[in-house]
Amino acid sequence: MNYLGHLYLSGNDTELMQANLYGDFIKGSDLSDLDPAIEKGIRLHRAIDHFIDHHQVIHELLPLLRTELPKVAGIAIDIYFDHLLAKNWLTFHPQPLTDYLTIVYKQLNTNDQRYSSDYLVFLQRLVQHQWINHYPTLDAIDRMSKNISSQLSFPNQLVNGKSVFLMHEKVISDAFFEYMRSANEHFLTEKLRILS
User: Fold this and answer.
1) Predicted pLDDT of residue 9
2) Distance (Å, whole) CA 33 – CA 64
3) Which of 26, 84, 134, 176 makes the best surface tag, with the fewest CB within 10 Å?
């Protein structure tokens, strides 16, 4: 999942959310030099990525999407699932998405020097441009797909992400709801283990 999925699965702990999002900026397995709170967030981030990468519905969905999106089907799923989470937010969270994000944006610490400068710049842009607020729209799928496509170091068809989503929307949506059901169950207990 992309940013919204990682925020959601962090619960309502903003410090954990911020550390979780940092997972995309940290490589390697040795996290011993990091603040313990940040280390927990990165471990949660990696657990979420591992869970979705190995989930049965993802393994069933990938071959379908690889026909139109070779090499980038997994990236497309992250985009699609964040869109569907935003679109169906009230199914999973009692607070309207815009209210939830307003609180998150206010509480993210974009000056926390425990984090790298490139990550803090990312957070500042995330807050300033309120990227996640646009996720419920199809335009967001289009913009994210084209943006990520341009950043990849190899030729790819991710620019067609929106049209592929519309082509397979029912199958993708069914996979998303099945994934969310099991992810909510899994991380109710797994999160406690990771954070202990």
Assistant:
1) 95
2) 41
3) 134
For residue 38, how many other CB atoms are within 10 A of its CB?
22
Return the ∠ at Cα 117 (arms to 156 and 20), rounded to 5°.
70
Please answer whether residues 83 and 140 qualify as being in contact, where contact means their C-beta atoms are separated by less than 8 angstroms: yes
The pLDDT assigned to 193 comes to 81
CB atoms within 10 A of CB 95: 13
| pLDDT tens track for 126-162 | 999 999 999 999 999 999 999 999 999 999 999 999 9
Q: What residue type is 43 in one-letter code?
A: R
Tell me the whole-structure pTM to 2 decimals: 0.94
Q: To which residue do tokens 């969310």 refer?
A: 180
Dump the DSSP string for 136-191. TSHHHHHHHHHHHHHHSSS---GGGHHHHHHHTHHHHHHHHHHHHHHHHHHHHHHH
Q: Would you list the domain boundaries of the chain?
A: 3-195
State in Å, rounded, how far the first CA of the chain is from the last one.
Answer: 23
